[in-house]
Amino acid sequence: MSNSDEKVNGLAVHSIDQANTVLIDADNVFWAMTAKDAQGAPFVSREVLSLYQKQKDSLDGEMKQFRFSAELSAVYIDPTDRCNSNCPYCYVPAKMRKHGAQMTKEQLRQALNKVLDYFRDKKRKPVIIFHASEPLLAKEAVFSAIREFKDKFSFGLQTNGLLLEKEDVEFLKEYRVGVGISLDAPLRSLNNKTRPSAKGGNFDAVIRAIDWFDGYQGLNVISTMTKFNIHSLDKLVKFLHSKKVPCVLFNPVRLTQKHSLKTKPDEKLMTKNFLKAVDTAIELSQSSGRRIVVANFSNTILGIVAPEARRMMCDISPCGGGRCFLTVTASGEMIPCGEFIGLKNSSGGNIFKTGIKEAMQSAPFQKIRSRFVEKIAECDACLYRNICGSPCPAELGSMGNMFQKAVFCEFYKAVIRHAFKLIAEGKEKYCFREEGWDNLVYNYQL
Amino acid sequence: MAKKVESGKENKKQKSKPVSGEMSYRLKCAKTANGLSHFVMYGDVPKEKTLL
Prior knowledge:
Chain A is an alpha/beta fold and 446 residues long. Helix content of chain A is 38%, strand content 15%.
């Protein structure tokens, strides 16, 4: 697992399982899979070494550019700090969720115009994601903004679903909004334990909304893995597939706020059950002809086969916070990522008083961009360092030192090993939406 | 599907399957410099995939 693995012409020789060895350059993620001989020794051909020599310089350059450029592609906007739920692992401080700020319609317009100013000279159409706490508490302002700015931005919305009405779902489909909806388990009682509400929890509201979405390709379900739900991940995949949901994301609980420690799962159990859920999704996608993808596993596969196509930025080092995206809180503070809400010295300025450019150049943002795997003990020698990215600086910073390895380091290693195995079996395409996979083209192939 | 191959043979049905016990490949997004439109999470939802 480390750079001390045997090396052949600059490539580390790393055993994946009994059948496969991978040769890897951890810096640029050049890899070659090779079968073992009867004695278990890897076979390394001249073709692999010559391909590596041919590609090395350009891969080094591309990876450097990808990791260290600071080009925004998305802005998360929290139109309200308030929430109508009280999830035990929430990273937004409880006081803010109860009594926090909420943007008016005019303030939201003002914030979006500031974002537009920043992107005026850029080619890319920016993505705006309305996010935590519960953005639909400011539904009128959010929907009005989507109507007004529909041609300027691509929109996303992350919601607990409690306030979703049928006409809202029709509206979101009509405006092609990417929608993330929170659901932790396929059983009401289990789900409502970690997704509570005044009336019990969000289970019934979410199931109703999923039925209204009826196979909408812009829908994804976000599930937080805790000690409560890890035994039901594969059942959740089956349930969501039966409901025509195309995409699910299993986030390991972040321990940014101390109270979330009470929900921390056993790492081995989480790994075993997460991989079971991944395999279930692949089996269902193969056998039914209709895909369901586990988005964070897809991203791990991408980290190996197409590192620069990654969109979820927690697994790139430095992470995407304050580099590829930022968060605007309801009071207008610009912070590198939502995980930093409530953490001291993380604001890069207020969007109502200053600009995004200034925030990007601010000390808090630069500090986050200065955290990368080569500066972290163990990660600096890990062959997987540029596939995992060692998340998350907010979580680790809240524990006293952001320059330490990921809380769930062993989980990430096991997931990456599993990804290599699936690639060896030729199953990786089932981890993607068909059109996503088809949009990938070869840079090179042995 | 596969449009450009700099080394080795192009095989549209095999984006991955090992040939003679070895494989190595790298893919790039055909649409943007460092991101896919409509891929795993947020972003553009293509019109034709929007089921109204």
